[in-house]
Amino acid sequence: MRVLILSALTLGLLMGCNSSSEPANGITVDQGYVDTVSRESGLSREEVETAYRDCVKGGGKPIFGGFGQPACETPTLDAGKSCTQNSDCDSFCLAETATCAPKKPLSGCTSVLPSPGRPATICVD
């Protein structure tokens, strides 16, 4: 009996420990993300939570942007479409595959086609 009570108490405590805030408008906010971005960017927790919810509501995925700023990765409208230059795409034309990037913003270093046949490498933090 004692084991059953202790198990129930432990389960209750574990269920109360959650790294996500309560859903607002059906969106659960990752508090680890909020803590990190708030600390790194200097933005308030409320500002970061709002940016997180707006991103998810718009179909995006909250990511860490440059200098600890919150960023929102979204799928592009023309992912995988053949292209010859950036202006053919919603985001960038990837030089390696001559297709439109699947998401924006891009991160890291990527070879793109600012104009036909002229690859350039961009690096985004």
From TrEMBL:
Keywords: Signal
Signal peptide positions (record): 1-24
Keyword Signal assigned: yes
Protein name (database record): Lipoprotein
Organism: Palleronia caenipelagi
